[in-house]
């Protein structure tokens, strides 16, 4: 389960108001019926390569149709731009042929590799992407394009259908985010907090059934935890996940105007 990193990095205790939802959702039952149980960590549509970055860095044909199956996340690729204090952000579903070299470079930055653990040859990153792109749509990897420049990597995923749900009291339609800020110049100046707030609210705006956006940064990644707190998330619990002890961070729809 990757971290969320300001380079930024991508669950057992609970807060007092969280209660465990014991009823399996219809979507989860359908996933089991297709032989895709919650042990699969990732999912998504099919990869499509070969597209080049257009003038000004923004990809031509940027309004990519979200691949079949990704309706589990209400078609992330069609959400459109989000205005932020730092500029206009577009979440652009990853295309392995177009984006692999860039993501490989980011993942091999030592500050990123410490938490994402995807350093190495391109095949390591490609496998991580394809497990989502060839999956069932519960996780969609995206480039964050800010004012026409690709500068971050996001994973928008169904936390209630993810292995994470085994480690915290998940609620139906909980949506998780992982974030990686790609360029060193974009780190350490509050940009992560700005984007996390904007993307979490973008999720809530486009997923009416979702009441909470969640994240699980590594507790050791202090800049990441701080970015979530400054971005309108609240700390809910410390949780033990495979390979790390994490901070369960939650942005609630009901509290979004207060935090």
Radius of gyration computed on alpha carbons: 17 Å
Low-pLDDT stretches: 11-24, 28-69
Quote the average pLDDT: 81
The secondary-structure element order is HEEHHHEEEHEHEE
Span of the ends, CA to CA: 27 Å
Quantity of strands, as a count: 8
Q: What structural category characterises the helix and strand content?
A: alpha+beta
Count of DSSP H/I helices: 6
The strand line-up of the biggest sheet is 1-2-3-4-5-6-8-7
Helix content: 10-25%
Strand content: 15-25%
Largest beta-sheet details: 8 strands, mixed
Shape: globular
Entry summary:
The chain is 25% helix and 22% strand. The chain contains six helices and eight strands, in the order αββαααβββαβαββ. It has helices spanning 26-33, 96-107, 110-116, 122-133, 191-206, 222-230; strands at residues 82-84, 87-93, 139-146, 149-158, 175-181, 212-215, 234-241, 244-252.
């Amino acid at each position: 389960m990757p971290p969320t990193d300001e380079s930024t990095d991508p669950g057992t205790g609970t807060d007092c108001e969280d209660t465990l939802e014991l009823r399996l959702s219809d979507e989860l039952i359908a996933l089991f019926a297709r032989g895709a149980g919650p042990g699969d960590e990732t999912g998504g549509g099919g990869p499509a390569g070969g597209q080049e970055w257009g003038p000004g860095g923004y990809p031509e044909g940027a309004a990519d149709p979200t691949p079949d199956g990704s309706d589990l996340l209400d078609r992330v690729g069609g959400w459109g731009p989000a205005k932020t204090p730092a500029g206009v952000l577009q979440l652009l579903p990853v295309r392995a042929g177009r984006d692999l070299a860039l993501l490989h470079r980011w993942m091999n930055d030592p500050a990123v590799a410490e938490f994402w653990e995807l350093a190495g040859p391109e095949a390591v990153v490609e496998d991580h992407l394809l497990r989502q792109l060839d999956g069932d749509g519960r996780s969609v990897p995206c480039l964050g394009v800010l004012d026409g420049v690709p500068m971050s990597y996001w994973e928008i995923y169904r936390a209630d259908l993810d292995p994470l749900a085994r480690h915290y009291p998940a609620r139906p339609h909980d949506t998780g985010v992982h974030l990686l800020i790609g360029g060193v110049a974009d780190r350490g100046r509050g940009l992560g907090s700005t984007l996390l707030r904007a993307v979490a609210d973008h999720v809530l705006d486009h997923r009416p059934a979702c009441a909470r956006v969640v994240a699980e940064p590594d507790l050791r990644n202090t800049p990441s935890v701080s970015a979530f707190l400054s971005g309108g998330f609240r700390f809910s619990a410390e949780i033990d996940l495979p390979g790390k002890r994490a901070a369960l961070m939650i942005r609630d729809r009901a509290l979004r105007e207060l935090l």
